[in-house]
């Protein structure tokens, strides 16, 4: 029954409702909605109540392929390019430093395990895969894996995917709490944009009729269709094209103020995050065999070195901790999770920088992954 699409969608939407209700009406109000929805998704998946990573449903693939990009598009409709004047460069610098930390992490992680025994002749390709995925998300991971045909390596590929899913989900929780935690030790200045809340304002009772809803869906779906077609005939990632279209439209005041666009975008983000939680399958790693611990250690070490390197840079350069957290999430999880983090922090001024950093990671991660694979 848990593989039936209607059942899966029912549960996922129910988890979003439950997480929002709990964060508004119970003692869990101190936990953000994105954090709670990831936890709920992980709990249900590990208890077998919804599909997990090892028996993933086509519904999950559809959410990753269509819902996640839609969330980016709709939330960007309320963003003005003036935000780049103050937040653009700090986010870009933090992202580049995070990518450097990822590369350093891969090198360090290889030294912690007997990588030739664990990964065999594929260790260089796997180093490139992990560099790519922790520079800008899973699209880079898959690109490198397909090129080196690692997808046919059964247990190794499965182990890496499961470890990656677990670490990515956990790192989302870490970055959600990072600014508050680090402010206790070092109160770095907060880079706050003017009119940020005004740009991103939305309410639970936005009035959206069939006319405006139809227009909103038409614009979003048309933008995604055009992005995919242009990406197919060029070397430009679809998410970069979609981001560009959204930014152009966002400069039109009429489009920017479409009622319900941001609410629809945020719901899409929640739907994406609950699937991220469902992919956090702890028990599946046991099936990998004797190398499961080493694979998990390898993956954790990469992210920890990345995180420590980026936090150290934030400490030295006194960078806004929210920017550090979002840049890190743009590296580890990609544009959608970076956007969710900015939204969770109630930093509407950082919505655009988070997407640009994530898009940059999608564009550069594959190239950096192939570079590291070649050097290793």
Categorize the overall geometry.
globular
Helix fraction bin: over 70%
Number of helices: 17
Residue-averaged pLDDT, rounded? 83
List how many beta strands DSSP finds.
Answer: 0
**SS-based structural class?**
mainly alpha
Q: What fraction of residues sit in β-strands?
A: under 5%
Question: Can you tell me about this structure?
Answer:
- Keywords: Membrane, Transmembrane, Transmembrane helix.
- The chain crosses the membrane at residues 6-23, 35-53, 59-79, 91-113, 119-143, 155-181, 209-226, 238-255, 267-288, 295-317, 354-375.
- InterPro entries: DUF819.
- This protein has a domain at 82-197 and 209-260 and 283-375.
- It has helices spanning 5-25, 33-46, 58-76, 84-112, 115-119, 123-136, 138-148, 154-183, 196-199, 210-232, 238-250, 253-256, 261-278, 292-317, 321-332, 335-344, 351-375.
- The chain has 376 residues and is mainly α.
- The protein is globular, with a radius of gyration of 20 Å.
- The chain contains 17 helices and no strands.
